[in-house]
Amino acid sequence: MNNKILESEPNPTLVTLRDNKAKWNLPEYRRKGYRYLHKINRYGLLFRSDAVLKLDKKINPNIEKIPLVQKMINHKSFCSLIVGRDQDILFERYADDFSEFQPQTIMSITKLFLNLFIGELVEQKAIELDKTVGFYLPNIGSGYADASIQDVLNMNVINSYSEDYTDPYTSSFLQESVGGWRLPEKLGQNQNQEEFLNKIEAEEGKDLKNTSEFAFYKSANTDVLALLVEKVSGRE
Questions:
Q1: Left (φ > 0), alpha (ψ -120 to 50) or beta: where does 92 sit?
Q2: For 222-236, how does the pLDDT look when each residue is reduced to its tens digit (9 = 90+)?
Q3: Which residue of 39, 112, 151, 153 is 20 to 30 Å from 29, comparing CA positions?
Q4: How far apart are the C-alpha atoms of 136 and 157, rounded to whole Å?
Q5: Within a domain: residue 1?
Q6: pTM: predicted TM-score of the whole model, two decimal places
Q7: How many domains does the chain have?
Q8: pLDDT in tens, 45-73
Q9: Residue 225 within a domain
Q10: pLDDT tens digits for range 177-210
Q11: CA–CA separation, 145 vs 132, rounded Å?
Q12: Reduced 3-state DSSP string for 121-174
């Protein structure tokens, strides 16, 4: 019997290399990283519908002539662009390395679907938008407990969570290990989304009210609302 010990090493694609970023998310690897993110990410959930939306191509040649469209499709970072209305595809274009069959992460398009879920719960009178998050999620941290659902939907909450992409140590990057986009600092110490969100705190000595004229974009807002949808609907 062979008693040789098998050795392993941290997944090199998910190791944080520099600028507090995983290898796949560094500039020299990012395009390939996003192309294969569905294979890179540690966690995944796959659903395949029994019915698919019927789409018809009704190309409008004038769309391509729009200066902003030209600027986009000729940019070195361009991947793909589809313009649709109802069930008609009016324009589509793909980069050479992003075909129409290439899976692409929907990223923050998730927020659109989340708003629809919230709308359905409102319609069912399962939630009220002027109620606080803490009313529905008693374990949520001080960073969201006293915020109204409406303010969270509007990106109108001030707390310790930041999504400043000019700061490599901003909260949104630190959240990547929770979503499986990078390895945690210590292997085996995995934290789930609910645990992470429950630890977001209010800024010291401040409430959550946004007194500025600006919205504060935070992906954690969407994650908190998703957690709320799960708890209220009972469909975790």
A1: beta
A2: 999 999 999 999 887
A3: 112
A4: 17
A5: no
A6: 0.87
A7: 1
A8: 888 899 999 999 999 999 999 999 999 99
A9: yes
A10: 999 999 998 888 889 999 999 999 999 999 999 9
A11: 6
A12: HHHCCCCCCCCEHHHHCCCCCCCCCCCEHHHHHCCCECCCCCCCCCCCCCHHHH
Query: 1: pLDDT confidence band, cut at 50, 70 and 90?
Result: low
Token pair recorded at residue 36:
């294969």
**Two tokens, residue 77:** 């970072």
Check residue 104 and give its pLDDT.
Answer: 85
What burial class does residue 64 get, using C-beta atoms within 10 Å of its C-beta: 0-12 exposed, 13-18 middle, 19+ buried?
Answer: middle
| Residue 223 in domain | yes
Report the distance separating Cα 137 and Cα 232, nearest Å: 9
CA-CA distance, 147 to 135, in Å (whole number)?
Answer: 10
Please list, in sequence order, all residues whose beta carbon lies within 8 angstroms of the beta carbon of residue 159, skipping any fewer than 6 positions away: 142, 143, 144, 147, 200, 201, 202, 203, 208, 218
Residue 142 belongs to domain spanning: 106-161+200-233
Average pLDDT taken over every residue of the chain: 94
The answer to the question of residue 121 being in a domain is yes
Q: What is the CA radius of gyration of the chain?
A: 21
| Region of residue 135 (left: phi > 0; alpha: psi -120 to 50; beta: else) | alpha
Tell me how far apart the alpha carbons of residues 109 and 111 are, in angstroms, rounded to a whole number: 5
Q: What percent of the chain has pLDDT over 70?
A: 100
And the tokens for 104? 């692409």
Q: Give me the amino acid identity at 75.
A: H
